Amino acid sequence: MKVIYTDVLCIGAGLAGERVAVEAAQAGFDVICLSLVPPRRSHSSAAQGGMQAALGNSIMGEGDTPDVHFSDTVKGSDWGCDQEVARMFADTAPIAMREMAFLGVPWNRVVPGEATYYKGGKPFQAVEKAENEGLIHSRAFGGTAKWRTCYTSDGTGHACLFTLDNRLLQLGVTVHDRTQAEALIHDGVNCMGCIARCLRTGELLAYVAKTTLLATGGFGRIYSATTNAVICDGGGHIIAQDTGIVPLGNMEAIQFHPTGTVPTDILVTEGCRGDGGTLLDVNEYRFMPDYEPEKAELASRDVVARRMMEHMAKGNGVASPNGEHLWLDIRHLGEKHITTNLREVYDICMSFLGVNPIYQFIPVRPTQHYCMGGIRTNKNGAVYGLKGLYSAGEAACWDMHGFNRLGGNSLSETVVAGRIVGKAVVEFLKGNETSFSTQAINDAAAKVRARIEALTHGTEDAVALRKALGEIMLKHVGIFRNGPVMQDGVNQIQELLERSKNIGIKVKNPKGFSPEISMALRVPGMIKLGLTAAYCALQRTESRGAHSRDDYPARNDSEWLKRSLATWEEGKSLPTLSYEDATPWFEIPPGERGYGGGKIITADIPSEKIKPFGQEKK
Fold this sequence. Notes:
The protein is an alpha/beta fold. It has helices spanning 15-26, 66-76, 83-103, 156-171, 235-241, 271-274, 288-291, 301-316, 335-338, 343-353, 409-431, 438-455, 462-476, 483-500, 515-539, 557-560; strands at 2-11, 31-34, 51-52, 113-119, 122-128, 149-150, 174-176, 179-186, 191-198, 204-214, 248-249, 254-261, 278-280, 326-329, 362-371, 374-376, 389-391, 396-397, 480-481, 548-549, 555-556, 562-567, 576-581, 600-601. Among the domains are: 254-369, Flavocytochrome C3, Chain A, domain 1; 442-555, Fumarate reductase/succinate dehydrogenase flavoprotein-like, C-terminal domain (Methane Monooxygenase Hydroxylase, Chain G, domain 1), CATH 1.20.58.100. The longest helix is centred in the C-terminal third of the chain and has 25 residues, at 515-539.
């Protein structure tokens, strides 16, 4: 087996992984990025709408500050976030956006003079200030008090990823694409890299590193209906949970985006609604103001998704061969706006739906989109349980999102957390030397080889098991949840887990290019991820953010201002759960979000856990 040495191993080469790689490479360290696909095909490139940062350049963002951004983020999280991390994020985001501009991101810029904008489908005039000409512009997104989402039309992820990838090339960072990480190398205390499988040849490789980063994105493919690409299978989470040491945090916190298209589940950006698009029912009636008079279509995603489902349940959905849906109307924005600022939406509708959004409604309904939970880290991105292991981006539970993330905050998180975690990695490398254990390397490789060998004797179909998992998750751990339904889901997934021990492959030679083997190695871990999410959701007896229970409709701050931590012990059929405080302190004590409604069971917060609000009071 070939052994490859580096200072930093980034497993994942999307925005978060590449931003950490840039930080480490700029400090003079050797970096290798592993990716399932060429980096520019990472799922980050699919992100459309923008990145939140309190720049306050546009007239509708005037007066914005990191304090306001922080407040919106905490309320959006339904007080489930770590407020120390949310504060770090809000304060750093403006710096990170300007850095991305310096690297070459072509942000939309302020054009001075009178401009026509839309709110709730109706136009209004605003005058952009001459002194702000050429500064980074912003658009409206849900759950925000100001327009602060920086954007490059509706191709923000694409523009940022290509920019960072160019920077990697300048710095000489090595990228090994079409490579799948199968196991972490560790001795129970230190992480030393990973065992990976080359998807071209089937060869196993040992990547030995002083520090290892997990930045593999989300695990949305455990659902049958998701906006996530096929590569979003939770690879980083799987190898972390397989250690039996590293906990996964808040795995029950799963977001459903209001505007997945029907029947493809391809996302159309929140920027459609931010730019003035409206949601209509079967009668072409705009219904969101009836539920959310102030925020309407721009309430937080968890709220809008629930309101849409409630409205369809009342008989207001549009019948179709692919199930009920509602309409998104952006026609009033006009051809020029749609084909420039929303050009990817236009292309998606024309290419995949046969719909021209300049003249026709877009069929939409909520679909799984984002995972707030993930590999639990501290505020510097260091993973709990193993020294030298870090995580960033959607893969991580850095936990600035709590139980609902705001649109634009996750894409911003990739470069903000990438910057912060990258600097922490550099500090770790400067202050620590690592000893590598050949025994740990050989043990990890032997486990992967044994799993591949077992596939040649099994009889279960990995594709069938994954399909069954997706259907169970959508039905039993969806937008609305309750105890008996989730318990049934847990029981069914446990049966899948048992069956997954006997997965087999039809092509008995494990050498060479084989998508069948790649999936067969992934599916048992995906089933465990689904079981963790379902079991954590069953145990959380409250409703908070995206976790909405019919049988426990109140947000219970008295008992549930805490984060779930799940670890998997060898041979167990359920994860072991423990809990920690959601935040070390509160700048904003729990209260009303200002949208969404619902009962709150209050908690008595000790005075020593409350800090003065605002940057200047730190």
